[in-house]
Amino acid sequence: MTKGRSTTWQERIDIVLYCLANGQDYTKTARQFQVSYQQVYGWVRKYEVGGQDALQDGRGRTKSPEELSETDQQKLAMKKLEYENERLRAENAFLKKLQDLERRRP
């Protein structure tokens, strides 16, 4: 079994087209391009459902504010506020502890 490797978007398109041209022979395609069977199978399924754009790697990509729906924008704002509240709570706890330590000093 071949271990998967990193591929570019264009390579994935080429691999999928080769696989489809050869009667969806995933094993032959995996050997030919030195990628795993699972990668080929997944790319072909994505291609059949969403076309070439579905083969782009979107991991780690954050959406720009223009791409977010109103609900997503509100969720993002809430997360930011929750993070800020937690930071302020930690800061207050630290200051209280510092004051307590300073009071205890002789």
In short:
The chain has 106 residues and is mainly α.
Describe it.
This protein has 106 residues and is mostly helical. It folds into two domains: 9-55; 62-106. It is built from four helices and no strands. The chain has helices spanning 9-21, 26-33, 37-50, 70-104. α1 (9-21) crosses α2 and α2 packs across α3 (37-50). The chain is elongated. It starts with 8 loop residues before the first helix and ends with a helix. The mean pLDDT is 89.
Secondary structure elements and pairings:
Blueprint (H helix, E strand, L loop, with lengths): L8 H13 L4 H8 L3 H14 L19 H35 L2
Helix pairs in contact: 1-2, 1-3, 2-3
